[in-house]
Amino acid sequence: MSVTSLLETRGLKKSYPQGKHSVEVLKGVDVTVDKGEFVAVVGPSGGGKSTLLHLLARFFDPQEGRITLGGVDLRDLGPDRLYDHLSFVFQDVQLFDGGVLENVRIGRPDATDAEVMAACHAARCDEFIRRLPEGYETPIGENGQRLSGGQRQRLSIARALLKDAPVLLLDEATASVDPEAQHEIQEAISRLIKGRTVIVIAHRLHTIQHADQILLLAQGRIIEHGSHDELLRAGGLYRDMWALQTVTQ
Ligand code: ADP
Ligand code: MG
């Protein structure tokens, strides 16, 4: 009996144009994610991690290969059905020049004010929102310029909580946020990932030690794949990255 996994990529290739040429940044990536799994994508900067998640969120399509969700090619799924199943929290959070409440409500347009506020509370946004001049009605400026990076990210987490989709794509912040904000973001993320299928780009390896799968993506290829313990035993790049983070922390 063949069991279809929830999310699969096969032979995924993606190039970006560069002048008259193009540069291939994903060179044939195969990923298989089962329902309920916590999957971490790690690797050196420029390795293609964000490109992979942007493909999964269908910001654009691959030049070659395919992505299926529940056995259906994303290109055949249609945006409405895709985004019923999938939400994402990326670093370049899209905010518009409206009030805070309306910016979070995008996660689920028919949500009541009370539901939006509950999501903000769970995402640890409540306190900073209440300190804004007009609270939840405060216009947050084009692209949220009035907010810090950590605050924008927590709003994006609130949106995803409100949306409550079963599959979550998450790009952990690299931007320097102060330790207290970092703690709050981590708490909001813990709430968000609970009970979902998660694919996360992680920079701090201690947050993914218990991942079901770790994919090490470097120069557009998955060069190591396994659990934390398996990758440590393999003694490759992951082990070196782990050793480096352990001594510098
Ligand atoms: P990572 O998230 O692992 O740092 P990215 O997927 O962001 O890697 O980038 C992979 C490579 O693709 C990098 O060399 C980056 O400069 C390039 N790249 C990413 N986005 C674009 C883009 N929109 N246009 C052109 N090149 C891009
Ligand atoms: Mg990235």
Helix-strand layout with pairing:
Layout (H helix, E strand, L loop, with lengths): L6 E12 L2 E13 L4 E5 L6 H8 L7 E6 L2 E2 H4 L1 H7 E4 L10 H6 L7 H10 L3 H6 L17 H15 L3 E5 L7 H15 L3 E5 L11 E6 L2 E6 L1 H7 L2 H12 L1
Parallel strand pairs: 3-8, 3-9, 6-7, 7-8
Antiparallel strand pairs: 1-2, 1-4, 4-5, 9-10
Helix pairs in contact: 5-7, 7-8
Keywords:
binds adenosine-5'-diphosphate; 36% helix; four-stranded antiparallel sheet; Rossmann fold; globular; binds magnesium ion; single chain; six-stranded mixed sheet
Tally of discrete structural domains: 1
Strand content: 25-35%
| Overall mean pLDDT | 92
The backbone outline, from C-alpha atoms, is globular
Radius of gyration: 19 Å
Assign the structural class, choosing from mainly alpha, mainly beta, alpha/beta, alpha+beta, or little secondary structure: alpha/beta
